[in-house]
UniProtKB/TrEMBL annotation:
Species of origin: Fervidobacterium thailandense
PROSITE patterns assigned: STAS (PS50801)
GO molecular function, one term: anti-sigma factor antagonist activity
Family affiliation: Belongs to the anti-sigma-factor antagonist family.
Occurrences of domain STAS (ranges): 1-110
Highest taxon of the lineage: Bacteria
Protein name (Swiss-Prot/TrEMBL): Anti-sigma factor antagonist
Cross-referenced InterPro entries: Anti-sigma_ant (IPR003658), STAS_dom (IPR002645), STAS_dom_sf (IPR036513)
NCBIfam families xref list: ant_ant_sig
Length: 111
């Protein structure tokens, strides 16, 4: 359903389309079951092909963040468009989950 690659011990999850109530829970379950439970707790989400994120999607990322942190990891966002950046700023989620211009920058920061 989702695909990921690894760089320097960091899992990079390439997202596509909008992150919304329709798909956010399956994303969370996939990340927890396939990455975090397997010990891959440093995760970068590549938003380069994401158009929008709704409030349910934001809540899902908060949940993933908490799970990763409680397992000794962290998450970061990369290549977020301006609309999603505004939403992250309005909800102050950008203070909790770091956002980077590129996947390379994000991987370097959390590895």
């Amino acid at each position: 359903m989702y695909r990921y690659t690894e760089q320097m011990g960091v899992a990079i999850v390439a997202l596509e389309g909008d992150i919304s109530m329709q798909n956010a829970m399956s994303l969370r379950n996939w990340v927890v079951d396939n990455l975090i439970k397997a010990g891959k707790t440093k995760i970068v989400f590549d938003f380069s092909k994401v158009g929008a994120v709704d409030s349910f999607g934001l809540g899902t990322f908060v949940s993933i963040h908490k799970t990763a942190v409680s397992n000794g990891g962290s998450i970061a966002f990369a290549s977020v468009n301006e609309n999603v950046k505004k939403l992250l700023s309005l909800t102050a989620l950008d203070k909790v989950i770091r956002t980077f211009d590129s996947v390379t920058d994000a991987v370097s920061a959390i590895r």
